[in-house]
Structure formats: structure tokens, C-alpha cells
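Researcher: We're teaching a course module on how sequence relates to structure. For the next exercise, students receive a sequence and then see the predicted structure as C-alpha cells, so they can try to spot secondary structure elements on their own. Here is the exercise chain.
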Amino acid sequence: YAFAATRLDADGALDTSFGDGGTGVKIVPIGGVNDEGSSAVLQPDGSILIGGLSQNAGNWDYAVVKLTGAGQLDSSFGDGGTKTIAVGAGQDAARAIAL
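Model: And here is the predicted structure for the students to work with:
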């Protein structure tokens, strides 16, 4: 499991200028056993934030991925474009993200 994002053209075809290798798709493993993106928001500058969760050592933590408008990890954000946040000792899951 990993975070994934796609961008489509107006006709519904994959936008090959987005993501990796002309695919129109960006897949981001955060490093946990299971990673799940559940919401996304487009920032005014065209960058994309994806919120969700990542399983690390049997515990779930909040996870956020930031992509550039071209679908690449934004290295100025978090740890090379990703950030996990342990809110407490239990299971943490972000189900929505907003600006």
C-alpha cells in the first residue's frame, strides 16, 4: 500500500506531464508497512497535499505528502516531501485535509 495521485486531461486521459516517467501517476510509499492516502487538496500555487495514514511498527500515524504541480515530491516539505505525525500512543488516522 502507498499513496497515489493521478492527473487527468479534460477528456479523461492520463496527463503524461504529471508524475513519473510520463505515466500521469505518482506513487509514494512513505516507509510504513501500509500507507493510505484518503484525501487531497490543491493549494493556490498548484501544489497538492494528500492526507492519510501510515503504519509504522504496528501503530498508525497521520501522514501527509506534498507534491509539486508536476507531481513530484516537494523536498522543502517534511522529510523529502512526506511527513508522519504521531498524535498519541494509539492509532491515528487522518481522513480529511483542508487549507
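Model: If you want an answer key for the exercise: The beta strands are 3-6, 25-28, 35-42, 48-56, 59-67, 82-85. The CA atoms of residues 10 and 16 lie 13 Å apart.
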